[in-house]
Design goal:
The chain has one domain: Ferritin, core subunit, four-helix bundle (Ferritin, Up-down Bundle), CATH 1.20.1260.10. Helix content is 64%, strand content 0%. The chain is built from seven helices and no strands. α3 packs parallel to α7, α4 packs antiparallel against α6 and α5 runs antiparallel to α6. The longest helix is centred in the first third of the chain and has 27 residues. It is globular, with a radius of gyration of 16 Å.
């Protein structure tokens, strides 16, 4: 596995620049305007950078899972739908950094790696999808509860709700249980960072 950035840079990259991202009419596209109008705290920027990292991992994973073609019928459709969602999520959270006049990470900045058998079977793909979605949901719950900029919380929470939908689909495929815990766990920046470490370094 090779990395073009260090893990520290994943969470601290803040080069000034005019990198503009298309918002594609996303539900939280207006968050870029919020970030431009009101300076974000260092803590909020750390959360947003973390979410950008999770979305890049999600896009990479679902792209590989779709290409592996191990799930049939509805399973493949779910993978494609999740990939489309993750791309829109990325555009939205990256736009927060762009709105703050910071340059968000892109897929060109990081290489992800996976266990050797991750894409060998429907079971391995589904298990990893559920593992990742658990972390993605936890990341968004943690951000929604920890961010100081209240104007961003609604948009962050809406993405978290979509991640919960993804998790429900893959839990149902694995265990026949689309409804699981009553209170999904929010994860700290450090906990989510540790999950990203498994795939980036």
């Amino acid at each position: 596995m090779s990395l073009q950035i260090t893990r520290a840079e994943l969470f601290s990259r803040g080069a000034k620049g005019g990198a503009a991202l298309l918002l594609a009419g996303s539900a939280v596209g207006a968050l870029a305007e919020t970030a431009a109008a009101d300076p974000l705290s260092d803590g909020d920027l750390a959360y947003v950078r973390l979410l950008v990292g999770t979305e890049l991992l999600g896009i990479d994973f679902y792209t590989r899972a779709v290409d592996a073609k191990k799930l049939a019928g509805k399973g493949q459709k779910y993978l494609k739908a999740a990939l489309a969602n993750e791309k829109e999520h990325y555009q939205s959270v990256a736009a927060i950094l762009s709105g703050a006049n910071l340059v968000p990470l892109t897929a060109a900045d990081v290489d992800f790696s996976y266990p050797k058998t991750a894409f060998d079977s429907a079971s391995s793909v589904t298990k990893l999808a559920a593992q990742l979605e658990t972390a993605f949901l936890g990341a968004y719950l943690g951000a929604a509860g920890g961010m100081q900029a209240s104007s961003l919380v609604s948009g962050i929470a809406s993405i978290g709700a979509n991640q919960a939908q993804h998790l429900s689909v893959f839990q149902n495929m694995l265990y026949g249980k689309p409804i699981n815990v009553s209170f999904p766990k929010a994860m700290s920046i450090q906990d989510v960072s540790a999950v990203l470490d498994q795939f980036t370094g």
